[in-house]
Every structure is written in structure tokens, then in C-alpha cells.
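User: Please fill in residues for this 748-position structure.
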């Protein structure tokens, strides 16, 4: 029987020592002090000794009373220097001092000075005794009665105060939005209620575990005081002491308070089936004595409500701020964390990452495995950036990092870190992926402190990067934003949200340098607004690339250019057609179908087509791109590298690529006749290309001197305003007939 056990245990010293009762003796007769001292020596009440305070006068008494507001009983002589001194003191205690708890016993040596009944009532005087009457036993019984009264009053008062505290505590408890905070608040409140901080633990079962499945390793330590402090955040099985672990476990699984010889475990339970326990290193009887049963019960009830509310809040919080696929933070979590940190004014860097060619991976392995894949990417990021303020997943394959400010000087380190982080391929199921991450970067110092704005800036930088295709990181600059706005405007034109824009094909002849004959025509896209204006092609193509519409737009171009060109009357079938392919188009899976369909519909064969691609697509040694280009060439088509010299430009790789030729960028041709360096570049490009057996086309040939130099250097093909601007199909017919009129193009 635990209660019996408790009772016998009661005499053991408790962690909380019991203070003696304070008793004040006010008398101007020293003998009275002495006899009282002798009479009360060694007396106890409720296991508490008595401590006497002695005052010889009213003044001394007042002084002692002012200093000690916890004097339980005062024995007051009625007549001291005046006949009414005792009564005056009583009035002062109740009215001026405002102490309504202290018990007052009046004593007099001269009968006849007894206070009147109404005075006794008004000032709550507990007894009036003649000194002669006060034998030791009578004095003792008067004091014990007074002490009982005092104790009762005090416990009522403590209860009242505790109930008020509980009321305040309740609001404190229910406004917590995180269980660890909640747990430590509970311990603080217990300490506040009982007046000392006891050893204690607050534990809770995991939210989504059935009660029958609760084990010590699914119970979490939310808070701890004293020696248990180190267990916070760990699970209950880490608590080695069986005397504590077992009652907590039983308390949680049974939902009942557990009473132990040296400790008490209070059960918290909610209507939703949530379970938690508060372990306090004090026997139940002591807790109850210190708090009172009702207070203890209300405390448990409040704690249960607070626990339920905090758990649910934490759950909602998790739903909102945690990405369920990767376990990283969600974008909402990122913005929240950012806002909190931005308040401190510290400069930060936002890094937006995307996985190059993620869509292909997703299509390859399916949605479920793609989830595992993303999770692994997230884990890599976590291990690589342990000090990041937050690592979140923003969209499908976009991750966003919030870091302490990374200065321009440290950017290369950041890029290196990211690269080494993904050196090892990522394995999912039977597949292994070598991935490349790209980074758009924005700094809070330079561009404000709004998380959404900075994420947008980082996204603009990332988009800018996608346009250019070669580098793997870009730091946001305001000019990127202007470009982005421009692209947006153009996209709206493309999608027809700003009136219908017509797509047209123009052709620019490419002349064989040796013969002056038209060797091929480059198909160039044109965009004509409903008002008849032509939009800047370069910008429109960039806009289409940025929005992903290039796949459709490019598909349209392949289809229409091939069928229109092949249907042009009087055009010799030996004249080729050059088609520009944007990187995204080459990467898309529908490129094969686009080409096949165009050939099929127009009855053209592949050997009439020359595909222009940019250097950027070779940077990652993407096997699927190589396969596509090889397919073109295997079927008789040609592949040339466009704008050669502007991008990656490494001759060493040229040999290994499935290409037939290069087009030297207009930039070099333009300056060639005035600038020695430009001429040297063109000369060496041509020398190397010829050594590698590649055909060379010069773009942007505008003048005769340029043509002459190129011809002397052995350039194969020439293209530029010197011959013709890009022109519509019907003008091309005229051009060709003029060319034949001049007889084998000798003018060229
Ligand atoms: P590009 O492929 O380098 O095309 C050559 C550009 O140089 C054309 O500009 C052409 O009009 C211009 N050009 C040709 N000869 C001369 C010259 O002698 N002097 C000068 N100043 N310019 C010359 P355009 O038509 O505005 O096209 C711009 C770019 O748009 C193209 O550059 C190409 O990258 C892209 N583009 C055009 N059509 C398509 C298309 O169907 N698909 C793709 N992916 N890109 C296209
Ligand atoms: Ca081109
Ligand atoms: Ca070009």
C-alpha cells in the first residue's frame, strides 16, 4: 500500500526543509519573556519547532513585525507604558500594517482591562488570558490553537495565490508553439508554485504512435531540471535510472499518476489521445502539502490542455515548414527563418540551386524514386553546409540555402564546395546519376532584406545562367532584372497575351567561297506583331528559352522552315538548309520526332540539312546530346558549331565531337580587316579547323576586304550582308535567279 509506505516515510528529511513557526512575545516585564521561553522550549507543531521573537515595547514590536511578515502568533501584553498600549498595537497591526494573518493573543496581569467584545471581533483577537491563568499547558494549547488558525488562513491564502498563478501560467502554457519550450515552462511553473526548483523531467510520447505501441524510444524528453538536464531532446531509453524511467513509462502508457517513495509522476493526457508525463523528485504527499490538492489537479489539467495545444501547433508548424519529400525545410520555413534573422540586421547570402536536367532523371526513374533521389540530394546539401541557417526545397528540383554573407572573394570556395559535394554520383535503386548543380546567388546587404525578393533575385540569376548555359553560378545584378523584365514582356507577346504575333521564316544565303555559289541558306526566325513590326529575334529567342517555350517554338521552326524551303520553286535541291537548334531543344526528347516529321512531311532527306548548335551544349559531355548529333550525321545530315569563338572555345575537344564544321562568330570577322589580333585569331581558328578536317563558315561578312582575306585563308563558306540580309522565301527565289543571271556568281 503506497500510502502507508508514504506515511512511514514522512519523518524522513525531505528535500524541502520545514521552517519553524515564528512567535512574537510583546511584554514590558522581562520575567514574562523568561517564563514564556521556558514554557515553550522544545515545543513542535506539525513537526515544526517554534522560534520566539521578543519585544519589550510597542516600538520594538512594530519594528520586528515590519521585518517579519511571516510571524504566526503574537502574545501581547495589554498594559505596557499606557493602559491601551496592547490594543493600540493590535489596531496598528491590522489597520496600518495590514497583516490579517497573524494570530493575536492578549495577556494581562491586571484583570479588568479585557478588551470589549466588539474590539475582539473587529481586530480578530484570538484570545484574552490573564497571566496568572497561563500555566504551561494552557499557554501551549492557546498557541497550538492559534497556529492551527494561522495555518488554515495561510493555506487558504496560498491556494488563492496559487490559483491566481495558475491562471497566469495557463496563458503562458498555451501560447507556446514548440514542445521543448512548453516542457521547460512547465518545470519553471512547478518551481514557481512550490518555491524551489525540484529535480524534474517532462516527457511526451510521439504524436503518431498508438498508445499500445509506445516504447521508451518513442518517448521524448522535452525538458529537464537538475541532474537530468543532459537528457533534453533525447528519448526516454537514454535515462539510465530505472527508478525514474519506469514510472515515467508507466505514467505515459497508463495515463495515471505514479506515486513513488521519492518522486511523483503526473500524467498529462489529452482528448486526442496524446500522452505526456511530468516527473518531480518529491513525494506526492509533499507536493500535495505544498500546493494543495485542487491546485495540483488544476495544474495537471492546465498542463494537459497546453500540451495538447502545443503538440497540435507543432504538427501544423511542421506541415507548413517542413518539406515532406526531403525532410528539409519548406520554402515557407525558409522565409520564416529569414525574417527572424533579418531582424538582427546581419548580412546574408541566398543561394538558389537547381539540378541540371532533373526532368530527364524524373522521367527515367518515376516519381517515387525521384523522391528518394531528391532526398539524397538534400542529405548531401545538409552534410556540405552544416552551418547554413536553413536549407529548404523551393520547387521540384530547386533548393534554397540561407548562409552567412559570402563575399565575392569566397564565392569560388562556395562553388568548389558544391562541386565536390556532388563528385560522387547519387544512386537510387539500380540507377546511378552524375549530377550537376547550378547556383543563382543574391546578397541581402546589396539588395534589401525581404526573403521573397531575394529568392526572386537568386532565381533571376539562375535563369540568366540557364540562358547562357556554360557557367555554373551567377550572382544577381540589377541588369539581370532588366533583362528578365524584357523577357517577360516578350514572352507575353509570344504567348499571344499581348495580341497575336506571327511567326515567319527568313533565309540568309551562305556562299561557297571557292565558287561563289549559294551552298546553303540559314533559316532565321522572325516575329511580326499584329501592327506589322518585327521584334528583335535574338531577344525573342532568349525569352522563348527562358520560359521553356523554345521547344514548341523551335519545333514549329523545324517543321515550317523545312517544308517551306523544300517547296520553293526553282531552288536547286543541292542547296542546303541550315537550322538553328537551341540547347533546350537538343536536350528535349521530342527533337527526334520533330526532325523526322519535318523530313517526312516535306519529302526532304536528311543530307540536305545542316544543324547549328552552340558550344555550350558540349560542356557537360551529355551522352544524350552526343547520341542525337551522331544520329543526324549517321543519317546524312551535318552538324556545325555556331558562334564559334565566343564561348567555351577549346580546340582540344573539337576533335572528339560529332561535328562537321564551325561558324566563326561575326565578332572576329567584323574587326579582322582593322585589328591585327582579330586577324590572328581568325587565322589560327582556320588553321586548326583545317587541320582537324572541319569545314569553316565565316559569319557577318560585310565588306569585300573581309571576303578577300577569308578567301585567301582558305575559308570554305561565307555568310553576311555583303551577299544578302536574311530575306523571305520569295525574295530568295529572286536572289537566286539574279545570281544565276550573273553566271555562276562571279560577282561574289
Ligand atoms: P545567329 O544564329 O548567329 O544568326 C546570325 C545572325 O546574324 C542573324 O541575326 C543575322 O541576321 C545576323 N547577320 C547575318 N549576317 C550579318 C551581317 O553581315 N552583319 C550583321 N550585323 N548581322 C548579320 P538574327 O536573324 O537577328 O538572329 C539572331 C539570332 O537568333 C541568331 O543568331 C540565332 O542565335 C537566333 N535564332 C534565329 N532564328 C532561330 C531559330 O529558328 N532557332 C534558334 N534556336 N535560334 C534562332
Ligand atoms: Ca546560326
Ligand atoms: Ca552565328
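Assistant: Residues filled in for all 748 positions:
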Amino acid at each position: 500500500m503506497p500510502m502507508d509506505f508514504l506515511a512511514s516515510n514522512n519523518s524522513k528529511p525531505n528535500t524541502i526543509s520545514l521552517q519553524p513557526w515564528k512567535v512574537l512575545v510583546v511584554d514590558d516585564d522581562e520575567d514574562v519573556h523568561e517564563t514564556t521561553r521556558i514554557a515553550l522550549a522544545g515545543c513542535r507543531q506539525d513537526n515544526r519547532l517554534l522560534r520566539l521573537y521578543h519585544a519589550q515595547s510597542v516600538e520594538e514590536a512594530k519594528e520586528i513585525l515590519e521585518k517579519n511578515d511571516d510571524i504566526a502568533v503574537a502574545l501581547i501584553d495589554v498594559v505596557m507604558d499606557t493602559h491601551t498600549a496592547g490594543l493600540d498595537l493590535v489596531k496598528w497591526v491590522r489597520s496600518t500594517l495590514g497583516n490579517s494573518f497573524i494570530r493575536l493573543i492578549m495577556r494581562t496581569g491586571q484583570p479588568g482591562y479585557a478588551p470589549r467584545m466588539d474590539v475582539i471581533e473587529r481586530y480578530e483577537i484570538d484570545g484574552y488570558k490573564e497571566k496568572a491563568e497561563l500555566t504551561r499547558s494552557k499557554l501551549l494549547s492557546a498557541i497550538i490553537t492559534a497556529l492551527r488558525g494561522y495555518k488554515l488562513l495561510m493555506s487558504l491564502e496560498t491556494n488563492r495565490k496559487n490559483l491566481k498563478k495558475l491562471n497566469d501560467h495557463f496563458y503562458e502554457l498555451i501560447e507556446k508553439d514548440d514542445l521543448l519550450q512548453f516542457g521547460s515552462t512547465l518545470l519553471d511553473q512547478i518551481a514557481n508554485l512550490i518555491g524551489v526548483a525540484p529535480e524534474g523531467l517532462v516527457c511526451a510520447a510521439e504524436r503518431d504512435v498508438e498508445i499500445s505501441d509506445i516504447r521508451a524510444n518513442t518517448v521524448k524528453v522535452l525538458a529537464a531540471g537538475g541532474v537530468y538536464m543532459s537528457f533534453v531532446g533525447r528519448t526516454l531509453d537514454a535515462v539510465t535510472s530505472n527508478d525514474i524511467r519506469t514510472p515515467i513509462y508507466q505514467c505515459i502508457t497508463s495515463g495515471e499518476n505514479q506515486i513513488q517513495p521519492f518522486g511523483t509522476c503526473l500524467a498529462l493526457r489529452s482528448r486526442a489521445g496524446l500522452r505526456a508525463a511530468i516527473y518531480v523528485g518529491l513525494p506526492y504527499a509533499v507536493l500535495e502539502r505544498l500546493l494543495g490538492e485542487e491546485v495540483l489537479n488544476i495544474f495537471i489539467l492546465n498542463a494537459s490542455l497546453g500540451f495538447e495545444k502545443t503538440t497540435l501547433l507543432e504538427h501544423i508548424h511542421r506541415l507548413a515548414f517542413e518539406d515532406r519529400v526531403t525532410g528539409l525545410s519548406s520554402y515557407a520555413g525558409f522565409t520564416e527563418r529569414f525574417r527572424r534573422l533579418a531582424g538582427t540586421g546581419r548580412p546574408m547570402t541566398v543561394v538558389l540551386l537547381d539540378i541540371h536536367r532533373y526532368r530527364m532523371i524524373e522521367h527515367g526513374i518515376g516519381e517515387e524514386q525521384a523522391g528518394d533521389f531528391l532526398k539524397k540530394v538534400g542529405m548531401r546539401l545538409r552534410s556540405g553546409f552544416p552551418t547554413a541557417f536553413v536549407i529548404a526545397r523551393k520547387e521540384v528540383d530547386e533548393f534554397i540555402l540561407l548562409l552567412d554573407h559570402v563575399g565575392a572573394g569566397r564565392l569560388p570556395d562556395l562553388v568548389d564546395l558544391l562541386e565536390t559535394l556532388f563528385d560522387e554520383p547519387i544512386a537510387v535503386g539500380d540507377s546511378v546519376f552524375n549530377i550537376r548543380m547550378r547556383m543563382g546567388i543574391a546578397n541581402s546587404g546589396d539588395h534589401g532584406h525581404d526573403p521573397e525578393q531575394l529568392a526572386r533575385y537568386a532565381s533571376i540569376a539562375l535563369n540568366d545562367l540557364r540562358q547562357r548555359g556554360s557557367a555554373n553560378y551567377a550572382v544577381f545584378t540589377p541588369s539581370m532584372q532588366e533583362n528578365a523584365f524584357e523577357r517577360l514582356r516578350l514572352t507575353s507577346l509570344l504567348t499571344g497575351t499581348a495580341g497575336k504575333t506571327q511567326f515567319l521564316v527568313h533565309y540568309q544565303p551562305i556562299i561557297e567561297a571557292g565558287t561563289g555559289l549559294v551552298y546553303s541558306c540559314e533559316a532565321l526566325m522572325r516575329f511580326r506583331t499584329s501592327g506589322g513590326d518585327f521584334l528583335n529575334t535574338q531577344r525573342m529567342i532568349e525569352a522563348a528559352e527562358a520560359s521553356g517555350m523554345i521547344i514548341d517554338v523551335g519545333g514549329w521552326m523545324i517543321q515550317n522552315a523545312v517544308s517551306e524551303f523544300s517547296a520553293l520553286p526553282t531552288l536547286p535541291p543541292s542547296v542546303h538548309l541550315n537550322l538553328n537548334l537551341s540547347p533546350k531543344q537538343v536536350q528535349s526528347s521530342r527533337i527526334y520526332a520533330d526532325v523526322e516529321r519535318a523530313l517526312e512531311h516535306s519529302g526532304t532527306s536528311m543530307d540536305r540539312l545542316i544543324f547549328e548548335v552552340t558550344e555550350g551544349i558540349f560542356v557537360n559531355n551529355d551522352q544524350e546530346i552526343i547520341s542525337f548529333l551522331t544520329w543526324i550525321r549517321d543519317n546524312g545530315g551535318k552538324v556545325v558549331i555556331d558562334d564559334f569563338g565566343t564561348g567555351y572555345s577549346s580546340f582540344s575537344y573539337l576533335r572528339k565531337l560529332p561535328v562537321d564544321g564551325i561558324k566563326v562568330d561575326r565578332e572576329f570577322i567584323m574587326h579582322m580587316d582593322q585589328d591585327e589580333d582579330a586577324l590572328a585569331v581568325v587565322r589560327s581558328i582556320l588553321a586548326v579547323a583545317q587541320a582537324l578536317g572541319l569545314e569553316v563558315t565565316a559569319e557577318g561578312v560585310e565588306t569585300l576586304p573581309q571576303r578577300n582575306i577569308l578567301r585567301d585563308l582558305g575559308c570554305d563558306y561565307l555568310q553576311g550582308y555583303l551577299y544578302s540580309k536574311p530575306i523571305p522565301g520569295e525574295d530568295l527565289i529572286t536572289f537566286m535567279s539574279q545570281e544565276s543571271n550573273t553566271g555562276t556568281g562571279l560577282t561574289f
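For context: The pocket of calcium ion (ligand 3) is lined by residues 642-643, 663, 699 (CB under 6 Å).
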